Amino acid sequence: MNARHEATGPDYDRADSRASYRESADRGRGDGAEAAYVDGPEDRRTVVGREKEKYGGVKIGSAFFGWLTATGAAVLLIALASAIGAAIGANTGLSPDEAAGAAAQDAATAGIVGAIVLAVILFIAYYCGGYVAGRMARFNGMKQGIAVWIWAVVIAIIIAVVGAVAGSQANVLANMNAFPNIPMGADQMTTTALITLLVIAAVTLAGAILGGLAGMRFHRKVDKEGLGV
Q1: Number of folded domains that form the chain
Q2: Entry pTM
Q3: With b meaning 16 or more CB within 10 Å and e meaning fewer, what string describes 161-174?
Q4: What's the rounded Cα separation, in Å, for the pair 145 and 64?
């Protein structure tokens, strides 16, 4: 009871707690255990550096779950955008045929708006995926984001190959509009298609990297609070 009263009484302060913890760590060091308490910015940075050296690097599993998150977010956002577009079309009082005719008359503007919306959706989706991977892996947020993007490229290539070999009926995932459509045939290798593919690749890569850095930043905030780095 007395020890507990002293630890919670008015005479107890944080410095006493740290001093006691430091003494315990010093005793543990004598038994071959590494001290958990570090004093000074350089020592604290050393602790984080050792953790990063041991547990850093690309985490394939974290990147895979990040890719799953990006895919799910893309599907949901595309569905939401489609619903919003349908609602706007319904409020104009035009029939589906009339709305399609109006869009065809101004195809350039409709194409630009659609491309911008798709780019924003993919950026947000892969930002979410990169964030999940960076948050799970803790270190090397940029690398985790790139790994998420690589997962997307690999899966997109596999889907494109399967679709080319087995036909469009087997290309179920591509019909979800959550994956970039990689041109495989000579008739699809147009300049517009390649430019679109490069823009999609750049947007998704940027989103995944920024998301990975944001996910890692949470752990740096925790380290700063706990270790003062």
Answers
A1: 1
A2: 0.64
A3: eebeeeeeeebebb
A4: 10
